[in-house]
Design goal:
Structural class: alpha+beta
Shape: elongated
Number of strands: 7
Number of domains: 2
Order of helices and strands: HEEEHEEEEHHHH
């Protein structure tokens, strides 16, 4: 983070609620500093706090599951939480492309021309899987786990359905035809 500060590069990084912050007088953990936050409430500290080597602003909110989301940032604004939420969607996208379904890194493709083609194909496959997962979810909702989320994502549900439909194409061609309808909308 010191490098980002030194080069004046704006940043927003999540820190653990047990990391210690220094306000000039004492060290406290974010868990203590933001202990009064209710679910959905946002608090931006008016003065910067110090993490090892840098002084920056803190923004926090209490998530629906009761966990504390604490961001250290070079900007003091509520927009940081919106930016962080978008970043998380991008992280999820790359997770699906890299390790949770398509194993993009296993291709070992590095040439720009080939990489752009495979990314285009994977994007279509990802959207197809997501739409198929939403369709499957509307037909049969998966039971929620104790933490309140389904056992698999909509993407995974759709990808698994498409795999089954492709491997069982001779026995049940209508399943695959139904899932092809989602490609006409993308």
């Amino acid at each position: 983070m010191s490098y980002l500060v030194q080069k004046s590069i704006p940043f927003c990084i999540r820190i653990r609620e047990y990391d210690y912050l220094y306000d000039g007088q004492r060290s406290l953990s974010p868990k203590v500093v933001f202990s009064n936050l209710q679910v959905g409430e946002i608090q931006i500290l008016s003065k910067p706090r110090r993490l090892p080597g840098i002084w920056e602003f803190l923004v926090a909110t209490r998530l629906v599951d009761g966990k504390l989301l604490v961001l250290i940032t070079s900007r003091q604004t509520k927009q940081i939480l919106v930016d962080y939420a978008q970043r998380w969607q991008i992280e999820t996208l790359f997770g699906c492309l890299k390790c949770r379904g398509f194993n993009l890194e296993a291709t070992h493709i590095y040439r720009r021309y080939c990489l752009s083609k495979i990314l285009a194909l994977l994007t279509i496959a990802l959207i197809w899987s997501l739409h198929t997962g939403q369709w499957q979810h509307s037909l049969q909702k998966l039971p929620l786990k104790k933490h309140g989320r389904p056992p698999i994502s909509l993407f995974r549900q759709g990808l698994d359905f498409l795999r089954r439909a492709l491997f069982d194409l001779d026995a049940q061609p209508q399943l695959f035809r139904q899932s092809l309808n989602f490609l006409s909308c993308t």
